[in-house]
Specification:
alpha/beta, 8-stranded parallel sheet, globular, binds (4S)-2,6-dioxohexahydropyrimidine-4-carboxylic acid, binds zinc ion
Amino acid sequence: MLLKNGMVVLQDGVKKADLLIENGRICKIAPSIAGDGIDLNGRTVLPGLIDMHVHLREPGYEKKENIESGCRAAVKGGFTQICCMPNTKPVTDNKVVVSYIKNRAREVGLCKVHPVGAITEGQEGKNLAAIGAMKAAGAVALSEDGKTVVNTKLMANAMQYASDFGLVCLCHCEDHSLVDGGVVNEGYHSTLTGLKGSLRAAEDIIIAREICLAESLDVPVHICHVSTYSGVQLIRDAKKRGVKVTAETCPHYFTLTDEAIAGFDPDTKVNPPLREEKDRLAIIEGLSDGTIDCIVTDHAPHHYDDKHVEYDMAAFGISGIETSFALSYTQLVKGGVLTIEQLAERMSAAPARILSLEGGVLQEGVVADLTVVDLNEEWTVDPALFESKGKNTPFKGRKVCGRVKMTVSDGEIKYQE
Ligand code: DOR
Ligand code: ZN
Ligand code: ZN
């Protein structure tokens, strides 16, 4: 495959170039390569995007999403690799479910799917799951996502074992006793709507705990979906001390605030909740200075029936994998916060590095995973056009800039608009 006339995002800048792909690898990047090929017409070529936090729902909740629909959504969103969270039914807490997901994803054949194993059996917070067996079957990380491992000793053991097996724990940080049924951020808008609030402290306390554990044990830890200004500060301070902490955030945390809940739209209900403007600005600052390493979607597709109920009763989550690139590009690059090279770093190189995955950069010799985007195209988010079964997005009707045109994985076109 020969791709011609691309603006190729390399680690040290954007260069006008052709790309030659052979045997699933990029074998040449040069100003001009002879031969017939696909004319990219000056569109931008990014390293294949990697989303290390996705909910594919299969097995068990196929009404919300399945591996096939989730992968279709992923490649449409520009992703060549995704990591799927273990809150399935049965829970992904053993090698059988890990193998099932990998095999099914291979059959679907769209993007690479890396399962994340649960930390405890059944995500019940009692006994550690079979970490070594899951690693051997292909799990790339451990997480109790959707919950926090309440017992601190158990979490310490988990981090130690994970590290012994070369895995990192991806921590959903939520002090359940403090959240106490809260569904939105505690503040002006929770008061105005009468919806029950949850303090930033509920997130920050567990971020601080996980940092303390990682520091004491001298093992790596990764903080999921950071939403608070104070959480950003905790992570920044820990990094300064040399703690092996990495962190992610999602487009909704740097694009929206809890003002969005005013209309009681259940699609604005997400965990952790949308916060306030000072949080949003701190998240952006954290992305800018590298305190927050990467952008993930926390793609959380839900069925119509799970969302079209009173706010209090609705499921938490946003179907985000088809809007992530455009929202990130619009907010951060057009907004003057990151360069396109830095955005590629946050959406590809950083997750690859954190999880030791192949890919993440464009250079000769690497696997041919890449995403072609039109940075000038404006479009309006319409969930009816999503490949994901989950149409739950608070961004419906929003105008964004930057459109995925083609996704190539292992040298094969997996999506083309
Ligand atoms: O909003 C969320 N949805 N947050 C989570 O932590 C879990 C996720 C889900 O599984 O729906
Ligand atoms: Zn979570
Ligand atoms: Zn999640």
